[in-house]
Design a protein that fits this description.
Shape: globular
Oligomer: single chain
Strand order of the largest sheet: 1-4-5-6-7-11-12-13
Largest sheet: 8 strands, parallel, barrel
Number of helices: 16
Distance between the termini: 29 Å
Strand content: 15-25%
Helix content: 25-40%
Length: 436
């Protein structure tokens, strides 16, 4: 997986050389998060919090529902981590506190200030789950550094990584001496780290070419991009492509004709079709914003819906664990199957609250004669919600509860739609409460 980084300082998206020298800054974090999410998870790092100079949390919060984010920077307590997860963070990155001895504050590395903080990692892992915890093992010349890379700990990278591994699903390794320099990654420590642990590893620091992205992927590691991405030296779509295991899909040894399976899924989780992609089709998918395939029958590029108009509008692409299969989350513009069915696996779209809201939205946009939904103004729909809630509370048996609950869900969804609230907005709020 290719992970794009959004580093935030003083309310701006920045790129720093060696963690200090400002190279560039932008003020379009929302747009960047939405764009980067098409290719992989997004690393959102609060540099001010990491350096103890404040917080950008209010700027970060909306990004957590806009993209699949891993969040780091100044996260020092399990309560902070759990709050971020409840707000939508997929994973949490911790660094400095994972290596600070809670019993010897400010004593210096010579006097034991730095150790792997087992108690902290245990609490984090228990609170948010090992699968959500990433530990940043940032290192300079093989030694773990903390406090925004300013403080050397005296801890050996490989030894520390082995101790950390039982508590985290992933390690984030930044080669600090190369970070922001565009001088290329040092693959030797990354290889040693890969050989030392079995958990996931993301490599960052100095990556400046597609060849390096490919080599990192060949090690079985993910890559995090910053400076090379923002300066245009590496294109994110190209990086995504070279990180895939095309050899697994190679049809013959004499030609570069690899095909990888690709599954198309709606944003609400319904699988609608499967097909195959090659490098050309993948490139066109990103360029057009609609999912493209390689047609094995015609042996050429094929965009779903190019004749019918029933395209699959791309939301995001993800790879499986072996990087030899793709999942395309996409919004269908109409029936997906060539037979006219909703999907290649079902004649009809599964009914869901999202489907209900789509129908309601369409009724408001294009009211048909006799449409009851189109007549529901704000005052009337609120009256109906109150009425149906009362009738649900008075229901006396299972069938009555089903009937009245259906009425209440319908009118509540109409009310939400008129207020510009989506079903996903409500699910996000329920998710937040569940994870509190």
């Amino acid at each position: 997986m290719v992970i794009a980084s959004i580093d935030i300082q003083n309310g701006k998206v920045v790129q720093l050389k060696q963690g200090e020298e400002l190279v560039l800054q932008r003020d379009n974090a929302d747009e960047l998060a939405a764009e980067f999410d098409r290719y992989g998870e997004v690393a959102v790092i609060d540099l001010d919090a990491a350096m103890g100079k404040g917080s950008n949390i209010e700027m970060i919060k909306p990004l957590l529902r806009k993209a699949e984010c891993r969040v780091g920077g100044g996260i020092r307590t399990a309560a902070q981590a759990k709050e971020l997860v409840s707000l939508g963070a997929r994973k949490i990155i911790v660094g400095s506190n994972a290596f600070r001895n809670p019993e010897k504050k400010g004593a210096g590395k010579e006097n034991g200030e730095f150790v792997v903080n087992i108690a902290f990692l245990e609490e984090m892992s228990k609170k948010i789950g090992r699968e959500r915890l990433i530990v940043a093992v940032d290192a300079r010349m093989g030694e773990v550094v903390v406090d925004g890379w300013k403080t050397s700990t005296g801890l050996d990278l490989i030894e520390a990584a082995r101790v950390v591994e039982p508590f985290a699903s992933e390690l984030l390794f930044t080669c600090v001496e190369r970070e922001g320099t565009m001088t290329g990654i040092d693959l030797a420590p990354a290889q040693k780290l890969r050989d030392a642990v079995k958990c996931g590893i993301t490599v960052a620091g100095g990556v400046s070419t597609l060849e390096e992205v490919e080599k990192i992927a060949a090690l079985g590691c993910d890559v995090q991009l910053g400076m090379a991405l923002y300066t245009g030296k590496i294109n994110l779509a190209d990086a995504f492509s070279v990180s895939l295991n095309w050899k697994k899909g190679q049809i013959s040894e004499t030609a570069d004709n690899s095909l990888l399976p690709i599954i198309a899924q709606t944003p609400d989780g319904q699988v609608v079709m499967t097909g195959f992609t090659d490098r050309e089709a993948l490139s066109e998918t990103f360029k057009r914003g609609n999912v493209c395939f390689h047609s094995r029958t015609r042996n050429k590029l094929w965009m779903k819906g190019e004749n019918s108009g029933n395209v699959l509008k791309l939301v995001r692409l993800r790879t499986d664990c072996d990087r030899d299969a793709l999942l395309a989350v996409a919004q269908p513009a109409g029936p997906v199957c060539h037979t006219g069915a909703w999907s290649c696996f079902s004649n009809n779209r599964d009914y869901s609250l999202e489907y209900l809201q789509d129908i309601i939205t369409e009724r408001f946009k294009n009211p048909t004669p006799g449409s009851y939904t189109a007549t529901l103004d704000d005052e009337l729909v609120r009256e109906k919600v109150l009425e149906e809630a009362k009738e649900l509370c008075e229901a006396k048996n299972r069938d009555e509860v089903i009937w009245e609950a259906a009425d209440l869900l319908y009118f509540s969804t109409v009310l939400m739609t008129r207020a510009g609230v989506t079903v996903q907005d409500v699910l996000n709020e329920l998710d937040r409460r569940h994870k509190k």
